[in-house]
Amino acid sequence: MQAYTKRHAMSVHYKFVLDKRRKREDKIYPLKLRIYDNDDNKEKSLDIYLHEDDRDERRQTILPNDPNYK
């Protein structure tokens, strides 16, 4: 009898997102890393806080006028 194992193609994607559910008093949002792994999604806090205007959503970058820009 032979044992067969299924091989699944691993496709991991990520995206940086502002968690707009967690707005602080000074109107900044936490930046999180969202990881997509097939049907599973996870978010990891990066301990970075940004104003909504200090981030380019399409390019996934922090703009140079923000103190967190490196």
Automatic annotation (TrEMBL):
InterPro entries: Arm-DNA-bind_5
Boundaries of every Arm DNA-binding domain copy: 16-68
Pfam families: Arm-DNA-bind_5
Official protein name in the record: Arm DNA-binding domain-containing protein
